[in-house]
Design a protein that fits this description.
Layout lengths: L3 H13 L10 E6 L16 E9 L4 E8 L8 E6 L2 E6 L4 E4 L3 E7 L2 H14 L25 E5 L5 H9 L10 H4 L8 E2 L2 E5 L2 E6 L2 E3 L2 E4 L9 E2 L5 H15 L2 E6 L11 H8 L3 E12 L7 H10 L3 E4 L4 H13 L9 H10 L4 E8 L2 E10 L4 E9 L8 H15 L4 E6 L1 E2 L4 E2 L1 H8 L4 E10 L2
Parallel strand pairs: 13-15, 20-21
Antiparallel strand pairs: 1-2, 1-7, 2-3, 3-5, 3-6, 4-5, 8-10, 9-12, 10-11, 11-14, 12-13, 15-24, 16-21, 16-24, 17-18, 18-19, 19-20, 22-23
Helix pairs in contact: 5-6, 7-10
């Protein structure tokens, strides 16, 4: 017997609610489905509840949802999957619009692979007329992947070192931090290497440097930047298919830090776009400062600072790493931390990549008082890895003259950008305004770098 009167009273209270739960595609909520008419699906119990899958989000208030059942059902109208170790059946023939007011509590998220299969079954079920190639029946935000069965993944080993580094050199978005030569400075037993190469029709089209740490795939814990590096002919559908293969291959939580766009050899934002379409999300955003070397505009304050140190001796490609590391370590002591690289590691990197790493220092009366460790990351972008000074000599503003010298050097080499690094701490939660203003005084502007994650 229908309990319509009881449901009507509950419905009146639900409609008065002014607080709304946040929701996204693939979320599952226990909803006040209610007492409905005829063959329409009802809720259960005194509150008329039933789990509902968010199939497509229309706004922050309502969505297209599919009611679920704990009973196994067969046929094209139903799709079964496992959720929280229990069987759930999506009632595809009961799909309808739900207001988020009906949600009582969050019940988890359907796995990505299960959702893709459900979506394919749903589209086949409700396909009324033949679709034109490339059309999208559910709107432009519902990205569908054109399968490429000729893509395969190969686990990295040392035999691929030369092939790997040559690919990075000619890639769309790779830089020195993606190369095996750079990564090889780490002791072999420091990380469990999980790097892969992606081939299509026996041609290398992408690489993914990665390690496994705490049951997660991270790209790369031993490098400033990581992420997927693709060839210059990479297109959106290639990125979608490559990420799909990577997700299936690892079957674990995946994290990567994407460098600022100024490090890309060519525009390549389809890589991050496709990652987000396949379940990756931004964990944090950090703010770096970049100098466009074609538009350097020093502040008056910075010009005055340069005059104070203009007669001091600057050494480009200094070899005294020991003294520099001592100054750097002392600088970081007040933050209760140490340099990322040991003295020996800095020397090793200089030996491995002599044309990419340069120690630029400044002296007063034969004493090193400041220095910047400069990295030529690509053919157009350089990066200041460490900036350190002896604060006893801060009145001379020594870092100002070093930056000036670096700018002059890079402009002669036809470089486009100098990246000053981040001015944020704790994953972007805290902005060091003083540091950012110092970098801005050289004409710098803010650029973001992002850390992405996809949960298994």
């Amino acid at each position: 017997m229908k309990n319509s009167d009881e449901w009507n009273e509950i419905k009146k209270e639900i409609d008065k609610q002014e607080k709304y739960l946040k929701f996204n595609k693939r979320d599952i909520f226990f909803m006040y489905v209610g007492e409905n008419v005829g063959y329409e699906q009802n809720g259960k119990g005194k509150e008329f509840l039933r789990p509902v899958l968010v199939y497509k989000r229309f706004s922050d208030r309502y969505f297209l949802g599919i009611p679920l059942s704990s009973k196994e059902k067969n046929g094209t109208y139903f799709f079964s999957f496992t959720h929280k170790n229990k069987l759930q059946t999506a009632l595809l023939n009961q799909i309808r619009v739900f207001d988020i007011k009906r949600a009582k509590y969050f019940f988890g998220k359907i796995g990505f692979d299960s959702f893709v299969k459900l979506e394919n079954q749903f589209l086949n079920l409700f396909k009324v007329t033949p679709q034109k190639e490339g059309s999208n029946p559910l709107g432009q935000n519902n990205i569908r992947i054109i399968p490429q069965n000729d893509i395969k993944i190969v686990k990295y080993n040392q035999n691929y070192e030369k092939i790997w580094d040559e690919f990075v050199k000619t890639s769309k978005n790779g830089n020195i931090f993606h190369t095996r030569k750079f990564l090889s400075y780490h002791p072999k037993d420091r990380f469990e290497d999980k790097s892969i190469l992606i081939y299509k029709k026996n041609k290398l089209i992408a690489i993914f440097p990665a390690i496994e740490f705490e049951n997660k795939i991270i790209s790369h814990r031993g490098s400033t930047y990581g992420g997927l590096v693709v060839g210059v002919k990479n297109r959106l559908n290639d990125s979608l298919e490559i990420w799909q293969k990577i997700i299936e291959y690892y079957d674990k939580t995946i994290e990567f830090r994407k460098c600022e766009y100024i490090f890309d050899n060519y525009p390549s934002r389809e890589v991050e776009f496709s990652a987000k379409k396949l379940g990756f999300y931004e964990v944090n955003e950090e703010l770096s400062t970049c100098l466009d070397l074609d538009f350097i505009k020093l502040s008056d304050r910075r010009k005055r600072a340069i005059k104070k140190c203009d007669n001091l001796k600057i050494v480009f490609d200094d070899i005294d790493y020991k003294e520099y590391h001592k100054i750097l370590t002392k600088n970081l002591t007040k933050y209760n931390t140490n340099p990322t690289h040991s003295l020996e590691e800095m020397k090793t990197l200089k030996k491995l990549l002599p044309n990419n790493y340069f120690l630029v220092t400044i002296y007063k009366d034969n004493q090193m008082i400041a220095g910047i460790w400069l990295v030529l990351a690509t053919n157009k972008t350089a990066h200041t890895f460490y900036i350190a000074q002896n604060y006893y000599f801060s009145e001379f503003q020594p870092l100002s003259c070093i930056v000036k010298k670096i700018i002059e050097y890079l402009k002669k080499k036809n470089y486009k950008y100098l990246n000053f690094g981040i001015s944020t701490e704790n994953g972007g939660k805290y902005l060091n305004k003083g540091l950012f203003e110092f970098k801005e005084s050289f004409g710098g502007f803010g650029v973001s770098r992002f850390y992405f994650r996809r949960d298994v």
